[in-house]
């Protein structure tokens, strides 16, 4: 750097504990025994998991806008000019079946507001795999406005279904689900760890106003994380319910404690049964309209077992059983003996207050054979339904979608700020690609013995329940041990200790993916001065309070 160049603002390494004035001693807090471990874990997650979190956040932001984009892209199919009189629903269904004679009726969704088309869902050979064909019918003229593939119980059309699959599995099939499960498994850990680190800081170190450089970046990172933490943890928890391994454990646990989602029965005289897992939760791409093969066409056929027209079924459900739109009608399955089962009429309003009651009506007489009210759901099933609707952006409609967009962008911002802190902490007197130095290893030795048993027990339990979290955590430990061994070997071979902070795997840090405000971005890998390996970043050993006395430039 030339003498005319402005000096780069750099956070210097803290002096060793023995040389610090006693007046700088930190306050004792309940977090202090485990603070170094939390910082170290936050660093590893930021370094190795942040890329997965970034992809999940960006695709999640795209999904949060897909509902509104869908309305614009498919406006011709979704809306029509308001007419004078709505035609009978059976005529609309017949028009859709005439246009697609090879399709088998799977469900009908009448328009729930003036100008909305009726969706007639067909199991049609022309539809893509695991898709139904949604035929859009003008309720005033019975004109077929178009047909599009529909995915999942939310009726996602091609664009939203594509974005949903991108968010869930990057279009890599079931293997791709591992990415989203890994991100969801670590998201709550990073967020909670960041909050604990933020709360453990002195109040004077949290402020954003009047700060510059690294301290400003760190404070902004922490402030965003603190405000977003609750929403981020919610996204992590609800996202895990659809994952391959943790989701299976969650479903099994719900079933064991009686929290499975009930399923209405279409057999005459049979009551509804509890269904293990997340059936009925309504997340697109995870369950569609499977299990309705062999449906009747919804009209009388003059046979020994006539089937009531769908119009009459809807009238009974609304007038006699109090159901209100938006509705979905599932036609009865006909058994091998020719005896039809029951129609199922569902409320599908997932916004608050949710209308999700269901009735099963005998296909021949219209008599009630079973009823399932959302108010009768077990508590865990209700919470799961609300959580899924919130995660999907349906619970509060547009405000919910804007909230999801804000949360996704906040995660992106925290990761970017983490990378920025990683860059700001680099030393300027070493190699060009050197990064901020780490505090010495061995922070685990600061944890009292009384903390170890509960920490190990809880970690083992969480790792078993969320296998990808447990496996990746073991990988982190193995990596840390290997790099520590390498550093000690290099130190012995060099004789006087290695200088850390270079760009190798044990010489650089990484960004934190979650809220931190304190040690959020990985600072460095190799310890400066003793050749040690990866350590908590962004804080340079905050357990010893290196930044309690900022200089005049606001640096720590």
The helix/strand series, from N terminus to C terminus, equals HHHHHEEEEHHHHEEHEEEEHHHH
Task: Count up the helices.
Answer: 14
Largest sheet at a glance?
Answer: 4 strands, antiparallel
Strand arrangement, largest sheet?
Answer: 1-2-3-4
Distance between the termini: 23 Å
Spatial extent as radius of gyration:
29 Å
Low-confidence stretches: 1-29, 276-283, 285-302, 497-556
Strand share of the residues? 5-15%
Query: What is the strand tally?
Result: 10
Helix content range: 25-40%
Shape: elongated
- Mean pLDDT, to the nearest integer, reads 78
Class derived from helix and strand content: alpha+beta
List keywords for this structure.
disordered N terminus; 40% helix; four-stranded antiparallel β-sheet; 556 residues; single chain; disordered C terminus; 9% strand; 14 helices; alpha+beta
Notes on the protein architecture:
Helix content is 40%, strand content 9%. The protein has 556 residues and is of the alpha+beta class. Strand 1 (104-109) and strand 2 (118-123) form a beta hairpin. Helix 2 packs across helix 7. Residues 1-29, 276-283, 285-302 and 497-556 have low confidence and may be disordered.
Annotate the secondary structure layout.
Layout: H1 35-48, H2 50-64, H3 66-73, H4 75-78, H5 89-99, E1 104-109, E2 118-123, E3 132-137, E4 144-150, H6 158-169, H7 177-199, H8 213-240, H9 246-256, E5 261-263, E6 273-275, H10 310-319, E7 327-330, E8 342-347, E9 358-362, E10 368-372, H11 379-392, H12 398-424, H13 449-465, H14 467-494
Antiparallel strand pairs: 1-2, 2-3, 3-4, 5-6, 7-8, 8-9, 9-10
Helix pairs in contact: 1-7, 2-6, 2-7, 2-12, 7-8, 8-11, 8-12, 13-14
